[in-house]
Design goal:
By secondary structure, this protein is an all-alpha fold. Helices cover about 55% and strands about 0% of the residues.
Length: about 160
Amino acid sequence: MIRNVVVRGSQLAGRRFQSTASAPVLAQAEQTFAQLSKEEQHSVVERLNQVMKADWKTVSIEDKRAAYYASYGAHNGRRPHVKPGDNMKVFIGVVATIALSLSISTLVRSSVPKQRTLTKEWQEASNAIAKEKNINPISGVSSEGYQGKGFVQSD
């Protein structure tokens, strides 16, 4: 009987020891990991790798969170480059660039004289030449009963 109590007690003690989680390698990883030096971060990652090799049922939630943050968290090179308010700066820059390009385009187009091939007389002459040379006789200017403007684009 005493032997059973001792054996049973040692089995329970062993189970309790296996199910008790040890202290986390890095508590509050989101706040503390980025503040560590490179060497300390490397040693924490090595310790977390050792902890993660154990049975996942026995690994504490804090250690799982720390391992996830060390692998995928926003620290060092993964820190976001965009700061609050940068979206508005980008939007204003894009609008200003578009406005500048439109104003330059309008200025250039207004300073260049209209091409002589865009005058109404030139386009009517193009219609006459197309009828004379029988260009597109099926559905174009030279077809029978054609009602369209032909090459005339301006009124």
